[in-house]
Amino acid sequence: MIRFRLAELIADKAFKERRVVPLTEVADATGIHRATLSKMANHPGANIGTDIIDRLCKYFGCQPGELLTYVDEDIGSLTSG
């Protein structure tokens, strides 16, 4: 499953700039609807298009690999049972 690191990137930006970076600011700056950003931050495996990934990479000045990671779902099922 793909997991988006949106919350971590927002936290990193807030730390570097020494201020709070609200989701609405990211939405306004990227043109991505706030609900889409919220889904990315809170629902692992959300289906997000490459155009959105492109806009977020431009906003954060990062590569796609810094925005998303692959999590093997089978590992969780092995340790929980």
Describe the structure.
With 81 residues, the protein is mainly α. The protein has one domain (2-80): lambda repressor-like DNA-binding domains (434 Repressor (Amino-terminal Domain), Orthogonal Bundle), CATH 1.10.260. Helices cover 64% and strands 7% of the residues. Strands 1-2 form a two-stranded antiparallel ribbon. The relative contact order is 0.21.
The strand line-up of the biggest sheet is 1-2
Count of DSSP-assigned helices:
6
Which value, in Å, is the CA radius of gyration? 14 Å
- Counting DSSP E segments of at least 2 residues, the number of strands comes to 2
Mean pLDDT equals 91
Which range best describes the helical content: under 10%, 10-25%, 25-40%, 40-55%, 55-70% or over 70%? Answer: 55-70%
CATH architecture heading: Orthogonal Bundle
The CATH fourth-level homologous superfamily: lambda repressor-like DNA-binding domains
Lay out the secondary structure:
Blueprint: E1 2-4, H1 6-17, H2 23-30, H3 34-42, H4 50-60, H5 64-67, E2 68-70, H6 73-80
Antiparallel strand pairs: 1-2
Overview in brief:
With 81 residues, this protein is mainly alpha-helical. The protein has helices at residues 6-17, 23-30, 34-42, 50-60, 64-67, 73-80, and strands spanning 2-4, 68-70. Strands 1-2 form a two-stranded antiparallel ribbon.
